[in-house]
């Protein structure tokens, strides 16, 4: 009778452990080839994913305030320190801005590349940049569209 009780306790312990460990794994955050429509429960219990804003925000207004012939110090005072300052290309500065809504795969990226001749700005190469107001309204519209999709 005593060995039967111990066996029963071991079986209950093994089943409980298996169930508890199985509950710890989840496929909700694992990448899949086909993005399945997430149901309400999966969205509620997923971890928080913050918006990602990285790099230097360079607006059309800021870019228009620099011009060839300016020194590196003048450009740095207006645009800030470049995100990428390559040791092998000391005369090239890259300003990159990336925005991604946390719950979305949609990403916006903009790049500005400045080339210097010595210490003077020689060439400006940039993506189409919005003004500061346009950028703010773009980010707000992305957020609003995602909130509408959640409803």
From TrEMBL:
<comment type="function">
    <text>Part of the outer membrane protein assembly complex, which is involved in assembly and insertion of beta-barrel proteins into the outer membrane.</text>
</comment>
<dbReference type="InterPro" id="IPR007450">
    <property type="entry name" value="BamE_dom"/>
</dbReference>
<dbReference type="GO" id="GO:0030674">
    <property type="term" value="F:protein-macromolecule adaptor activity"/>
</dbReference>
<keyword id="KW-0732">Signal</keyword>
<keyword id="KW-0472">Membrane</keyword>
<protein>
    <recommendedName>
        <fullName>Outer membrane protein assembly factor BamE</fullName>
    </recommendedName>
</protein>
<keyword id="KW-0998">Cell outer membrane</keyword>
<dbReference type="InterPro" id="IPR026592">
    <property type="entry name" value="BamE"/>
</dbReference>
<keyword id="KW-0449">Lipoprotein</keyword>
<feature type="signal peptide">
    <location>
        <begin position="1"/>
        <end position="28"/>
    </location>
</feature>
<dbReference type="GO" id="GO:1990063">
    <property type="term" value="C:Bam protein complex"/>
</dbReference>
<feature type="domain" description="Outer membrane protein assembly factor BamE">
    <location>
        <begin position="55"/>
        <end position="124"/>
    </location>
</feature>
<dbReference type="GO" id="GO:0051205">
    <property type="term" value="P:protein insertion into membrane"/>
</dbReference>
<dbReference type="InterPro" id="IPR037873">
    <property type="entry name" value="BamE-like"/>
</dbReference>
<comment type="subunit">
    <text>Part of the Bam complex.</text>
</comment>
<comment type="similarity">
    <text>Belongs to the BamE family.</text>
</comment>
<dbReference type="Pfam" id="PF04355">
    <property type="entry name" value="BamE"/>
</dbReference>
<dbReference type="GO" id="GO:0043165">
    <property type="term" value="P:Gram-negative-bacterium-type cell outer membrane assembly"/>
</dbReference>
């Amino acid at each position: 009778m005593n060995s039967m009780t111990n066996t029963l306790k071991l079986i209950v312990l093994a089943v409980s452990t298996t169930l508890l460990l199985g509950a710890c794994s989840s496929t909700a955050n694992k990448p899949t080839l086909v993005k399945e429509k997430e149901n309400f429960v999966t969205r509620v219990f997923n971890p928080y994913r913050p918006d990602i804003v990285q790099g230097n925000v360079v607006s059309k207004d800021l870019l228009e305030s620099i011009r060839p012939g300016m020194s590196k110090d003048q450009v740095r005072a207006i645009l800030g320190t470049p995100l990428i300052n390559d040791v092998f290309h000391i005369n090239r500065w890259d300003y990159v801005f990336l925005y991604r809504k946390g719950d979305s795969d949609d990403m916006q990226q903009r790049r500005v590349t400045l080339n210097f001749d010595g210490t003077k700005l020689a060439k400006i190469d940039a993506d189409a940049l919005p003004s500061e107001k346009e950028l703010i309204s773009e980010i707000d519209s992305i957020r609003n569209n995602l909130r509408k999709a959640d409803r």
